[in-house]
Structures are given as C-alpha cells and as structure tokens.
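Sample entry (442 residues):
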Amino acid sequence: MPSTEGANSALTRRQLLGGVGLAGTVGLSGCNSRSVILGNSADTSGTTIQFWTLFSGGDGATMKSIVDRFNDEQPIGNVRIDRQRIPWDDYYTKLYTALVADKGPDIAIMHQALMGRFQRMLVPYNPYLSDSTSDKYVPTLWERMRFDGDQLSLPLDAHPIGIYYNRSLFEKAGLDPDSPPTNFEEFEHVCDTITKKTDAHAFAPTPYLDPIGMLRTFIAFDEQRGGHLFTDGLSSVTFDDDAGMGTAQLFGDITGKYGWDIPNASENRADIAFQDNGLAMTMNGTWYAAVLESLDGFDWDMFKPFVAPEKKRNVTQSGSHTVTLPRNPHRDERKTRVAVKAAEWITQKNPVWGTRAGHLPAAKDALHSKALRNSPLWPKSLSKFFQMANNDRLAYLPRTPFNVNNSSTWSFFPDIYAHNVSPKAGMQRGANSIQRLINDVD
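Predicted structure, serialized as tokens:
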C-alpha cells in the first residue's frame, strides 16, 4: 500500500514561516527572465504543453488568466500551454482512463488526497529539479507531495475551510459582527438569536449541501472533537466512533432539534440562500471568498470554525491543489523537462492564485508577497487562513488508495442532514461501505 498520512497532519509554524526573511515579490509581477526558471536549458522551440484542470467559476477564470499570461510572456522560451478544463464530476475518471491508455496530458491538476490512487501513474519530479527547488515552497506542503522518497507533484496551494457570515444579518439580530463565535456555546447563542430575531436561517455546514462539502465540515468538527476518519495505516474506518457520531448527530440537529436550517439537502440551496440574505452562516473553503467579494454590496466576513460541541482542540479541514507530471510513454525527455519548467512557473510565479482565487499559495515568495498582503481578501479571509496554518490548525484528508473524493461515497451525510436516515443508521451505512473500499484495495 502507498505511504499515507493521517487526517490530523498539520503545518508547523516554523515550517510555514521558513524563509520569511528572504520573502518578497521578486519575480512575481510579470518577470519573464528565462534564467529564473530554466537556467541552461535545451531548445524549447515550438513546444506545446497539454495541461488538464478541473477549475470552474473564479478558480477557473484565475487559472485561465495564469495560462494566458504564460502564453503571452513566454517565460521559458517558445513554449505555450494548451489548457483543457474538464468538469469536476468527470475529471478524475477521465484522467484515470487517459493514463491507463497511455494518453495522459503533460501536466495535470490533482488534489493531494487523490495522489495515493494515482501514485503508479505519475512520473516523479526528482530527476528534473534542482537541489534548491524545495526551498521555494512551504516545507510541509513540499513534503506532503512525496511518496516513498519520490516527489510526485508540485504544491500549488493550501485551501482550508472557515465559516463565512453575513455581517448585515448579525447586525439585524443585534449581534456584534466584529465578535463572531469562538466555541459551541457562543455559536449556539448566535444561531438561536438569528433564528428568533430575523427571517433568515442561521447555519448550513456547506453552501452546496453536497457530500464532499459535508465531508470537509465533518472532518473539521470530528477532528475538533478528537476523532479521525481512519486509523493511521488506513486499514480501518474510525469516523463512526463517539467523536464522529457526535458530529453526525449535530448534522441532524441543525435541521431538527436546533432548527437552524431546514431538512432539505437540495443542491446549492444554501448557497442561494446565503447570497440572498436568507442564511447567516455557512462553512466553505478559501475559494468562496472570491465568489462573495464579486457580489455588489454583500457585506461578508469569515471566522475560524472552531465551534464544534465538546471541542478538544482547534483545527480545520484543508486540502491542497497540486500540479502533477502524468505518465505518458509518448512524451520524450525534452518535452518532459519543458513540462516540469512550466509546472514550476505555474506554482511559483502567480500570486493571483491567492489574491484573486483566494487560496494560500504554496510558494514562499507568493505567500509572503506584498500582493497577497495588500489584497482585499487578506483582512477578511486570507489572514485568518494564514494564522490557522501557522498555528498547526490544518487537518488533511488522507491520501487513500481509493477515490476518497467520490461524492457517492459520502452521500450518507446529506441524507442525515435531510432526515432521510437517522445519524446512527447513516453512519453505519457509511462505515460499512467505506470499509469495503479499503478491503478491496490490493
């Protein structure tokens, strides 16, 4: 079985801040010096790099702008990137199928949690990188991309989740929008006050009410309560223990006993309600900040989501986007080296992935850049995500050898939320089905 990491792996303050003294904005604003990326490289004339992504919405527009800038500036010579965007629901199935058929792209976006499944289909970066390459990235994010000594991807970002809230609804309910809740007792008071004093619902654990969104929130609250999804070796599920059952019960109580939302898990219902002032709070990742910032007149903010009942520690769920080098026997050595340089440029030279898309960059220069700190997203969301990362508050989805991001795998969470099944029965269903996935791995 591939080497794995538990969901409680975290960034350390020392590692995240590594290299701060030298951090700056060198090379971040349109630098097209070929030596910055390539050094003494072979001829790259007329090379086209196939790049597969799954980003949509603001993320998709931002990645398109990154690729467009690459093609306009040609920072590594006469090379262009051909970006192909595949819808999220189809992306990993199509990528897997392409790699099995030896028809994979030259570089591809991959969530760190999926690397275990694709490990044998990826070309390690090790032979193509300089000894100093690792110094350009946050150390723990760099190390997270390693399997058995192989550097299987370059980290693009970290994307934790937080609780986004409507400041106007807080004020309407007589609550101080500058003092959001920090524990369950305060959170319960805020939710009850909003439901009593406004026409809005108080809280939904994800705006999309989808299984993966529910999973992210479940991991955050379960980890806060001292639980984990799996054993350290990923041999058994553990999310159905007391900590997990308490989190599942909370999902049912939000739309039941507490009445903070209605028992309806229709897709995107909470997202629409939140943007229409019909929902006061929802839990989502870094990317949601850019969506909310684009809404005219919408007075939003975000706080650290450390509000699980019976909380034992402060932690939130996080993931990372990465750029991988898929296996393709038809790609020659020269083109592989060009693809590596393109992946380095994408991950290192684009602070807009933070300032516009809202994610925490994995490259040190971008993470500590003036561009990021001067972004309108910094005070509302990015600074808080940065603080959580600095203080060891990020829990990652384990890198399982099965597709842990398959929505159907976690469908029992929306069913619990919608009262289609009891928390106990839903969790038992989920534990049984996911244990079978683990047992079926060779």
